[in-house]
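Rotation project, supervised by the postdoc (A.L.). Task for the rotation student: set up a whole-complex structure prediction and record inputs and outputs verbatim in this book. Inputs entered:
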Amino acid sequence: MPELVYGVWDGVPYDNRKSASPSAPPSIQLSALDRFDDGNAVSVLMSERGFLVFDASVPLLWALQKHFMKVASESCGKCSPCRTGAPLICNLLNKAMKDNGSCDFSLLEEIARQMTSTSLCGVGQTGPVPLLAALACFPQELQAAPQDMKHGFYATMTSPCIEACPGLVNIPRYIDYIKDGHVDLSANLVLRHYPLVGSCGRVCVRSCESACRRAKIDAPVSIRNLKRFAADKALASGLLKAAAVPLDKQEKVAVVGAGPVGIACAYHLLRRGYPVDIFEAKREAGGMIRYGIPIYRLPKDTLQEEINIVTSMGGKIAFGQKLGRDFHLDDLFAKGYNAVFLAMGCPKGSYLGMPDEDTSLADYENGIDFLERVYEGVQSGQPPVLAGDVVVVGGGNVAMDCCRAAKRICDGQVHVIYRRTEEDAPADHEEIAAAKAEGVQFHFLTGQHSLVCDHGKITGLKVVDMERTEPDASGRRGVRAIEGSEHLLACAHVIAAIGQQTEKEALVDNDQITRDRKNCIVVNSAQETSRPGVFAAGDCTSGPRAKGPTTMIMGMGQAYFAARSIERYLSKGQVSFDSRWRMTELIAQGKLMQKDEPVAAKIPTERVELKELAPEDRSQNFAEVEQTMTQEEAWSEAARCMRCYRIYSVVTAKHIPGGE
Amino acid sequence: MKAYINKKAYDFEEGESILSVARRNGIFIPSLCHFQPLGHRPATCRVCLVQVQDANGTRMVTACDTALSEGLIVDTFSKKVRDMQRMQVEMILADHHQDCAACARHGDCELQDLAEAVGLSRNRFADLLQKPAAGRTVDLSARAMLRDMTKCIRCLRCVTVCRNIQGVAALTVDGKGLGASIGVGMAPDHHSSACIQCGQCTLVCPTGALAERDENDTVLDYLADPDVTTVFSFAPSVRVLMGDEFGFPAGSNVEGKIVAALRAIGADVIVDTDFAADVVIMEEGTELLGRVSQGGTLPMFTSCCPGWINFAEKHLPEILPHISTTRSPQAVLGALAKSYLPKQMQIDPARIKTISIMPCIAKKDEAARAQLARDGVPDTDVVISVREFARLLRRLGVDLLNIPPEPFDNPFMSASTGAAVIFGTTGGVMEAAVRTVYAILNGKELQGIVTAPLRGLDGVRTAELDLGPKVGKVKIAICHGLRNARILAEEVLSGKSPYTFIEVMACPGGCIDGGGSSRVKGQYHPGRVRRQQSLYDMDSNMVYRQSHNNPQIKTLYDQYLEKPNSELAHHLLHTHYKDRREQASAGIEENMKKITLAE
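Outputs recorded:
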């Protein structure tokens, strides 16, 4: 645990230099700050809440100047106090560094105060906080003119929405680009992180919107739909038909799986000039978002155009090539690939596991198989037809995809049963609302009991009522079956949408890839597997970011970091350290980001909701339900973003890889 | 709901800003970026600071974007508030071009007004920042206007007018930090950008950052050159606009005073763009009838407005075959002033310089079009806006207010009609065309003359007109503001347009609110209604109300052009258009380089 020497946090000064009983800010987890990278202690931390010094030998003035240079470099320049104030403060701090006496510290303080109390966004409102804290509580520490410093320094600008996004996409910046009239740069900024901008803009689970502080005024910014707007515009203007980057690197990479994770990783490597071959088990690329997400949510021409970015950059996709069936990991190295990226996903759907259930029954399907069957049917122009009623079991997004797809091809009633409450359902609640609008009947607090068959045909599902248990010690409430409440839900089809699994045959022990008990590949935060040169991400992996099946954005976020690791592995022979990701870990583990600070009393403005096809116009076909925003709507929605930026920086004992 | 401003209680509605409640009650809070007429509230200048106090304590907020809440105590006037407002203006000025006297907006600048309002007495930061504005773009590539970002204060009013009023959205916000300013998208420069140079942004810019290109020195050079014969002309709307610049009530007709002023500054020949407007009606009306009878491309759009032509060429080139080939009145006048006029007056056409006074700045760009020049010599040599003409008169010591009016006296190109005069307002071209087209078709004048549905200021106006037995009933449409024009044009391209003839004026209101018209600080087109009425009144009082009845028009065709759409008329008075749509996106990797954010 690092020892705090002095500092100011949330306005409270701490000075343990002469104190017999050292104190530290209670709201943060100091133990998380003991080092930044291996063997490299954190000497100073600066953020929107203040600064903490762990090594008294670091001149505070030097650290503050470094921090402020970052603030000034990120000032967008729209509002006056930050645009002019930030460079003014930089100039004054530079003066103080060169010739301490020549700096007018009272003017410095006046400008910094003007900047924090009158700036439009988080950069100006929070950037000078450490400086003002030091001026107020430790002015004597700013008197020494520091010499050349050998310390490491790393700073990043982030925000609650960015930290909530597994891909760390700079959301306020892409929203700003829409507001600024540069919609192509907006899409391009997301293209830094992954190529499937329009696809993610349609189906992302948007953790960012849950973190959006605008919710405290009216409603979260419609972040995902703005991204879709930018992507749709960019697609139309030809942005995605990019000129190929010369693939001039000698080392080549094999990617296993052409789902969103494999495509994203391939894209990043191609951008850096590495030749990439992708091996895909199925006949088309896109993985779960092609086969698993129904066309009414994600039109496949959008997906295909985005996948084409990778092939137009020189990436090659070999179809019908399944790991463990058609080739093994060793074959790839034998063919001369210098690194392998595994992203096979979890292509197998789970069944319900009821006593004596017969998974060979034609009308008892898992959700993954069902959605694939529907996809193939719709694409070929002959969607399957379900006769009679359908019961879908599950409360996640796959269950919603199943019930809404079933509704479109079924001549009877579609039911969803879920063992917990509606509030507990992990599905996007807008999806639940859409399914209800289309006529799907929901039965919450209802569990499956057993299949009822007659001559090999399903005639119903016996279900049982559930009730909530009292909260346990952690406040969580479970559910339990109410004895004797079993009753029959008559139906002709049952679809199990409760989870998915890896393909067991993909890897063999010979491959030297460590897996967990669910057969997921174990990876570290660099997305390395146990075998050197083999990296993995997405549903088929278990690591510090996610364990097992996960969201598309989480998988693509992992792919981004995996590609950075592969690049380092191929160029430097070792997977070193990623300072940007480390900063995110530090913020999360140290509980550094403020959560409940009040927001300004902005004038409420309405969140733009996408126009949808009316339920009666959509529930019998697979036309895209949500219509993209108009340009005017996009401008007005983008204007709702408050740019809750804040800048985090560390001074470390020695140089940080990737830092200054 | 109630809140307290400067210790007095005021009622307000939920969601109202402090600034709007203060203004409603006559409490002054200095502000800069806020632009009420367009509902524009970017909250970037941060000048409208006030102190508020509630249960959460005391803090400074900007009045424009902070909602009043029940019981809130607002102070707009304390020393702390005034000091912080003043410091904000000091910061804005530090980042601004420092040479006020060399700016066209000197004395007419909202930033100067603001400095006065906050009592600015020192400028501590300009030296400390060392010419921060110097790194920003000064783009002189556009023919009509300049984009001097050293003077930009990032109020973003221009962006809003370009998007919300014109639907052009050519202006973007580029760069960051001290380099942040108004850009023109991905285009290499202003001229080649999506900007159509309508100049509506120059009417709302609080400083000289976006302004007309001042060409008065060229005019003065012509006036001073003894070998040059200057031919001055001015547009229909100019006679109801110029008064504003000299203290007349909005809409005053100062035609005679303008003629007198031009004589006073030494103009050799003074002709009237009204005359050319009548020629346009003869040509365009005949062209329309030709398209109707010969199955030509319909509906036909008017072609007088250069902002509209630029918009069509840059944004909707598919519509170009629908636009009348008839030149604009300015271009018609230029062509005749260098062919017909010298023949009639027996002067050397090579010595003639045509000087056009316009309510418009896009006319400067039009004058420079290659299609409107002969052997490399433009038909219109220089165009000055109403604002420049007022400046020219001030430079030459001519006071329009006190100069006695004089009539036109050129016997060839100065007679006007009511039809020509109303060209200055939205709907006027259509109304003038209807009068003449009806007469050509039916051999008699349209009864009632004034066509009521064509008048007024609604953004899109439509009507069904009975043109008599030959053609029957036709549907026509009139629009102003390019946002509306886009809607009608897209309807045409979709094949669903029911109209035969569509009038477009790019500026809202038409030429009476052109991008080169008088500017009133903090307001947007305040004189529109009175200017329009004034043109209608002039029409009513004219001896001739129809273009074909203008005696000088009869002479022009009898003695020179033979008939409308004749070969010579085609050669002199018609033009063609070019697809100038911006190139598609530069592609992913090129754009990556333009992203201003550390990866």
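Student's summary: DSSP finds 22 helices and 20 strands in chain B.
Supervisor addendum: The CA atoms of residues 301 and 323 of chain B lie 5 Å apart.
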